[in-house]
Amino acid sequence: MRYKDSSLPIHERAIDLLAQMTLEEKIGQLLQPFGWKAYEKSEGKIQLTEVFKEAIAKGGVGSLYGVLRADPWTEVTLETGLSPLEGAEVTNLIQQYAIEHTRLGIPILLGEECSHGHMAIGNTVFPVPLAIGSTWNVELFRQICQTVAAETRAQGGAATYSPVLDIVRDPRWGRTEECFGEDPYLNSEMAVAAVRGLQGDSLNTNHTILATLKHFVAYGSSDGGRNADTVRMGKRELMEKDLLPFQKAIEAGAKSVMTAYNEIDGVPCTSSKELLTEVLREQWGFDGFVITDCGAISQLKGGHQICETEEEAATLALKAGVDMEMSGETFGRYLMNALQLQLIDISDIDLAVERILRAKFELGLFERPFVDPVTAQRVVGQQLHLEMARQAAREGIILLKNHDEALPLSSSLGKIAVIGPNANNIYNQLGDYTSPQERHHIVTVLDGVRAKCAGLSEVLYAPGCRVKDPSKAGFEMAMEVASAADTIIAVVGGSSARDFGEGTIDLKTGAAVITDQFSLSDMDCGEGFDRAELNLCGVQLELLQELHCLNKKLIVVYINGRPIVEPWVDEHADAILEAWYPGEQGGHAIADILFGDYNPSGRLTLSIPKHPGQLPIYYNKKRSRGHRYLEVDFHPQYVFGYGLSYTSYQYDHIRLDQTQIELDDSCTVSVEVTNIGDVAGHEVVQLYIKDCTSTITRPERELKGFQKIYIEPSEMRIVQFHITPRELQFVGSDLQWMVEPGKFEIMIGSNVGNTISTSLEVIPRNLRK
């Protein structure tokens, strides 16, 4: 059994093991059943289920999805779910049983959701990716991913289904919160950081996990922002925008890719040989394995309807380049039949199995299938991780408006009213793909404000209303509380909270109550929750309008998973903070900014429209973008890259070290950035490039670089960017990347609408003046 010799090359070990496997064992490696069905916890006792044992007896299981996941879909609760210590114990039980009760002792690959922290009870809940994108802090995100990997691997998880690299074209899409934003360059930088943080220098450690890039590809570009709907896109745009972050992540070493549910120009991604084999493997050199999204193969027959039988669906996916099926239903039931019908060859199966075995060897699962439960208990949720979550939330919060310097507030204001449905609801601030958590782990805005004002100001609270419920029963109490205060902090927005069985709030008292959660659900965002509008749901706007009538300072804090379009709030609020879903430390982070302990540095990664009828409104649309509407122009309310600070920054003296370069040459552009205010802060310096004339129509400007810098008052910093052919190239008429000679405008500034510029000329080789 040479495959057990760790001194041999991984390829040799995989080939040796593959040669010893039966057909049933091979197909078993391609399956990923639901992991939470592998164990049962009752009265504090944990045991493996007969369902899991039967699956092992039938030939084994290659992978399990979400062993440690807890949420309404899995029906795993705080009571029936696993603590970090118990999670490690369960994964050890699973591995031990699989190794001891299979002929070849192949360990199981345990895959977990880690969109913004490991989706398990007790694990650190970081801000959602949209908030992470708004930090514009690539190194911080790498450190977060490193932390998430350590917490996950400590409990036995070895793969994650992140990062999400979809480009958001229409923020009405419910999964907007899972993405970094609308720009391919920013997404690419975050993609590389995620791979390096999750996978590290080696997968064969006790603190790194395999990254899975999703959703491949163009999942965020569907018609009308409807989940998994049709994507109408040419190959050039696909290459320049949606494929680019995936390509950069593959170059960084990503070892797994997940297919998207959608079709592109009539071809479902799960059955696209062009995408999964020709582009991914042959052009980019990807050497990992491809996994489907849950149930995606069956959709080839039941949804896309491109085949008549499940055997044909399994065949299309396998031959296109799919190696593993999440849920395992189609491969498990029909792949054997497809082989007998000669729709596939055994070599097709062998190729997929070998790729999965290689990943297991790379992860060191054959040598180290078990983890230490005590270590898991120590690593997960430690104080250092909480501090990182707080810092990420701080940096991702965007100050959209600050009329007459309404912020920062003084912590000695007398009385402060904290009002709104998201002021003290823990799950409304955590986002989708979150497991139930103990109340004391989560810091709400009310918690954060009270902690900040302890002993200095009296903090009053009233929920006022719920996110979606039309009831105004809480208005009277909210107005009474607000009337007694000097300043009003209104925390409104949306929710991606699933039904965790935690009840709701009594609008008249603010107390938690247990009731029919379904009828009172706040959820208006998250997977499967697409919207036609972008306004505040329910009676939230009416609550704000009544509060405004009190003629007191009104600070609006948005907690939500997609942009909010409310012109009245933009006009009448004294200050507006966009916090997205800021995670478990979000309340402290918001209070830090409200009271001036942190100077806001978040910047938008999505253009926020004035009206949803302007959609799509992403900043890098083509120059030939058409004319304005009759009712409204095509300019957004808040542009890409926008965000205010408690200080001001001035940009001067943009310079190129060479104003003329040859096609394959490079140059450096520099700019002086001065803090002309009285407060130190972080500024996000953004580089945009415009190809002034091109044979293929190009965007008006494209982000090609950014740096987040810290500047003291009156300090001037010189910021430099290196411009190479990669920043100047586009996809030509032959679908190849190219740089054309001509004039380029180089722009640097604080957002896409506020830049200073200079010109660069690119000339053919050997024609330098």
UniProtKB/TrEMBL annotation:
Gene3D superfamilies (alphabetical): Glycoside hydrolase family 3 C-terminal domain, Glycoside hydrolase, family 3, N-terminal domain, Immunoglobulins
Top-level class of the enzyme under EC nomenclature: hydrolase
Domain of life: Bacteria
The entry's keywords: Glycosidase, Hydrolase
SUPFAM superfamilies found in the cross-reference section: (Trans)glycosidases, Beta-D-glucan exohydrolase, C-terminal domain
Residue intervals of the Fibronectin type III-like domain: 683-752
Transmembrane segments: none
Signal sequence extent: none
Molecular function GO terms recorded: hydrolase activity, acting on glycosyl bonds
InterPro entries to which the protein is assigned, alphabetical: Cellulose_Degrad_GH3, Fn3-like, GH, Glyco_hydro_3_C, Glyco_hydro_3_C_sf, Glyco_hydro_3_N, Glyco_hydro_3_N_sf, Ig-like_fold
Enzyme Commission number(s) of this protein: 3.2.1.-
Pfam families recorded: Fn3-like, Glyco_hydro_3, Glyco_hydro_3_C
The UniProt record lists the keyword Transmembrane: no
This protein's name: Beta-xylosidase
Organism: Paenibacillus pseudetheri
